[in-house]
Amino acid sequence: MTVPAVLHRARDTARELAWLFRGVMGENAYQAYLDHHERSHTGGLPMTEREFWRDKTDRQDANPEGRCC
Amino acid sequence: MSKKQSGSHRHDDVLVTDPDLPAVAVDPQQAEAEERRWTPAKIALWVGIALLGGVSWTILAIVRGETVNAIWFVFAAVCTYLIAYRFYSKFIERNLLKPDDRRATPAEYKADGKDYAATDRRVLFGHHFAAIAGAGPLVGPVLAAQMGYLPGTLWIIIGVIFAGAVQDYLVMFFSMRRGGRSLGQMAREELGIIGGTAALIATLAIMIIIVAILALVVVNALGESPWGVFSVSMTIPIALFMGVYLRYLRPGKVTEVSLIGFALLLLAIIGGGWISETAWGAEMFTLDRITIAWGIIIYGFIAAVLPVWLLLAPRDYLSTFMKIGTILMLAVAIVITRPEISVPAVTDYATTGAGPVVAGTLFPFLFVTIACGALSGFHALIASGTTPKMIEKERQTRFIGYGGMLMESFVAIMALVAALSIDRGIYFAMNSSGAATGGTIEGAVTFVNGLGLTGVNLTQDALSTLAANVGEESIVSRTGGAPTLAVGIAQIMQGVFGGAGMMAFWYHFAIMFEALFILTAVDAGTRVARFMLQDSIGNFVPRFRDTSWRVGAWICTAVMVAGWGAILIMGVTDPLGGINTLFPLFGIANQLLAAIALAVCMAICAKRGLFRFLWIPALPLAFASVVTITASFLKIFSSTPAIGYWAQHTAFKNALEAGEQSFGTATSVAAMEAVVRNTFIQGTLSIVFVVLSIIVITTAIIATVKAYRNGGGAETEDAPVASRIFAPAGLAATPAEKELEAQWAALEPGRRPARTGH
Questions:
Q1: CB of A28 less than 8 A from some CB of B
Q2: Spatial separation of the C-alpha atoms in residues B8 and B353, rounded to whole Å
Q3: What is the mean pLDDT of residues B300-317?
Q4: Is A67 among the domain residues?
Q5: Contact, B68 vs B60, CB < 8 A?
Q6: A7 within domain boundaries
Q7: Do A66 and B247 count as a contact with CB atoms less than 8 A apart?
Q8: How many domains in chain A?
Q9: Where are chain B's structural domains?
Q10: Residue A36 lies in domain
Q11: Is B106 helix (H, G, I), strand (E, B) or coil?
Q12: Do residues B459 and B475 touch, judged by C-beta distance below 8 A?
């Protein structure tokens, strides 16, 4: 492989890892919600980012998730 | 519509996938052919893995040198995990669970973009791992190291393959097939009202004891440690700041805020070092254990009633961030430094049961001391509920459920290596109870050198030097596992970054890292338990069902906090050494929960008519039942006071009645009365746990036998729905999966039922 190709590859890998990390941290939850909203054609406007995150933690208030020992 | 595929699947007659879309599952025959084709390269790879694993095990188990290198633990574990994952979990998939990728998962047919959201398998693996791995796998192996390195290593690796990972995989799969139902709901469905109720009460009681003992680990790590108290208490304002930042300043910027939080955390650790050196700082933050315990109890109550966004959610982000980062860092550091381990393979404590860290012989106490990492019942609560609602395709449960648990087991192996790498004399000085060492350097040296361990010659100098290096007043009787692990981690990390001058930083980094997990587990556990209690009381007083009713929420939170708080205070004030007597209860409780989960799985398998392979859940169930019931019986009936709670109870009671002023390690009448009280509570808890578990296991056996007589039982799965998405099953896509992925990618966007993620 040539040097630019290697660099290109490295950049892609770094992007993949960053995507994976953000995913594990839960950062893409809003995007997932938007995708779902668009796909399900339910009509109406989706929640804004701010509303979505508020809604998310408020739902957690009512449905706590366990954390293991 | 026409049938897309033919084959031996059970739901051929019901499941009709959309003919306008590419296939949603790899053709079973093609997948089978791919798996059965052994190319020379593939054979060479697996022979290589098997050989490396074999050599590592030989070095660990048979070769007896002066020392053994830590790298062999890593190789033995990783090679064995790979073989188990490739062959045993595949065997379970093929014969017992039979996932069908043509069926939609709850994340697809119940999709709401929030709780039910199909998530990329690699991301979900990370989520699931972050939810299951906590302080448990870090603490148990440290305490079990007193029996030598081999018993712990064998149990962690073999246990996870045949018990822990099987439990997680089965529970996750069955919950997924039932729309993400919780373990409690499945128990009620499969075992009836008696078994279900017993399972619910047992779960509640077990959560209380687990939270109490985790909190005790933190108290022991922070007692008389101004540095630790300062840096750990700083996590609260840091989390509050992160919460406000996410709510009002930049919603959704999770990685960004975690990085900021992490930087502040490092600052808090460094700042703790400065403050502990000032006179006012040392005075202000040197707290005795009872004060810290009360602090955690008050904190636990407030944290559990505050809104999630303010404290719990941001600290959870911080904890996930630290977890992934630190575990990767530790793995790399162990591979780089490759510490030599001089602990014998098996020590006399395995057979005599007289070990000063946790009393009892190898069977059954090794298996309850190491719970998380080998078999952890608590995982069944995570594997049912949250994760199954996010699985994209059925076949991914093997990677996420079985694979996720293997990963946790690897964390336990690393903790074991870190604990083994420290000097044995220091290990015993740190982990023997204050009652044995008197809490002084002189006392510790006398006690440890008096144990008669070959090759151990502890000096006062070694203890005071290490204490100074890690920035603590004293490291004598820092029981609970966390400080020992922190010393081990500090020793390994300073070999890579910073040298001896950085040991104090790494020690407090490790303490912070464990305290962070535990505090998250404490308030998440309190919250979950509070909801379970509200739901149960709701059967009698319907108003309690309304979880937004403040008064009810506060009452139930207070009840739960009082439950674990009482046990925590009891552990802290226990004249016999607290964690050393309580830790077995933690392990027993956790394993009994595992037995309950496996019992439910066995009943489900029986109702599916899978009697030929019923041994897959029955084998670990039998083992877990025998171990925990034996351990419970010993704790209840043993006549050795160090082991039996009631024997201890009677001995102290008799001494009190005889008018004695001191007895054993209790030096006053008040202390003797405390022992009488504590052993009564511990003994009662042992009885409650074992009775509830026997009820659950018995009802499961009855359900299984009934199913056997009838050749199966009622179907409790949700009705199958045809899937409209495709995703590979494992970490990397196979050639057949890549082919299908390409077909899906070629579909015009309008017709593609989009997947999330990429």
A1: yes
A2: 54
A3: 93
A4: no
A5: yes
A6: yes
A7: no
A8: 1
A9: 1-37
A10: 3-61
A11: helix
A12: no
